[in-house]
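Internal tracking record. Fields below are filled automatically when a chain is submitted to the structure queue. Please do not edit lines marked as system-generated. If the sequence contains nonstandard residues, flag them in the REMARKS field before resubmitting.
Queue: standard
Priority: normal
Entity type: single polypeptide chain
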Amino acid sequence: MIPEGDRLDKRPYRTFNETIEQLTHLVRTVYRHIQENITGSHPNVYRQVPAGGEIAVISLPKEIAYKGEKYNKLKSIPVIRQMLIYPPLVIQQPMNKRTGQFKRIEKNPIDLVDLNTDEWICYPSKVGKLLIMVYFHLEFFELGFSMCNLFQLADDKDLERKPDAMFLYGVPGNAIDGLTKYSTVFYEDAENGIFVGAIPNRPEFGYFGYLKKMVLTLHNSIIMKMGNMPFHGAMVKILLQGNKEATILLMGDTGAGKSETLEAFRVLGEKHIRELTIIADDMGSIELDAEGNPIGYGTEIGAFLRLDDLQPGYAFGHLDRSIIFNPSQVNARIVFPVTKFETLIQGHKIDYILYANNYEEIDSEHPAIERFSSVEWALDIFREGAVMSKGTTSTTGLVHSYFANIFGPPEYRCIHEEIAEKFFAAFFKKDVFVGQMRTRLGIPGYESTGPHETALELLRVIGVTES
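SYSTEM-GENERATED OUTPUT FOLLOWS
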């Protein structure tokens, strides 16, 4: 038995200090000595170059409460307990965009793959109320480690219960090829009460978006099976002067202008808003309480944003916590923490639900913020899921996706239809403001002014009068 004080995960800072910190100092010292011995001089200004390791983890064997013998092959894969990163961390991914959809299949990937467990590591992620075990091949270790900025790392107490889902990122060979058009698949193991996702180990899948969106697809599928409604969107809670509160949910596809509008909203309403709390940046779920009120929950503690769509200087304000992907390419991305895990699972009563429309101009018949007068009208707009593509995936032009959410709902469309009709009826019954906002983010020339004008109108709608 190893004394608790000597276990790597019980004194993590000491562990990191005695390995990574000392390695960094050693490498940098050797570099400086060689530099000065070769040149015969030393610099007057020492700019401490990156050295040693910029990211590290403590991972240990962990007994996971899986049901079903087929999952025993995962038991020897070490589970991450603590992490260390030196931000800002710059990562060059093999790819800079995502292609295709995540499709439900009738075969369990765990039965099809042959894993060399020495080449795998597990990031146990808390995704909203769910526990999802993300196993990734060491070929994709940089992307797997980057999850620490997006999903809360599960602690020992969390790992005492059975996981809700597991995900194999980097499956070797062609074990899951041919099951669908795109080899990004998941399976519902109803017998053992778990969902299983899988993506192959090939360069074309080396993009953080694959990792993030499969995890969220698993989350959304489980939420629907529970009878609740997943959403693709951003949700914030604002506290105005005078203690007036409002929780706003902006639903829409990638590039629709949700994050951009909220950032403009925060800047423009600075003198009126006492506090703005992010509950969900990209995905979440809605439940109905005992009185039928819609209650919103988030999934991620971080945000995965396009650098090109952010306000000038915004990214620089978060460099001390950021991981940046492919900064010199189109669709360069940044991921950093934006909220606390306790906040996103607390549950917040929703007051405004808006669909993010990024493709229509504003005129007298198409205002920046438009309220729907009926459940049917609202369902038609949300169901159509129209958006002008911003190049974050392989799609171009005006595209449509069911409820602007290809991550789960299309695979359970019948279930989702029943849920959506029930929940939208509840929204109108409880007098929730349901409508759409026209961000114009997909129209050339309006990348900044579009969200800015929409944010101004949103301030007016919630009762803030600009002076």
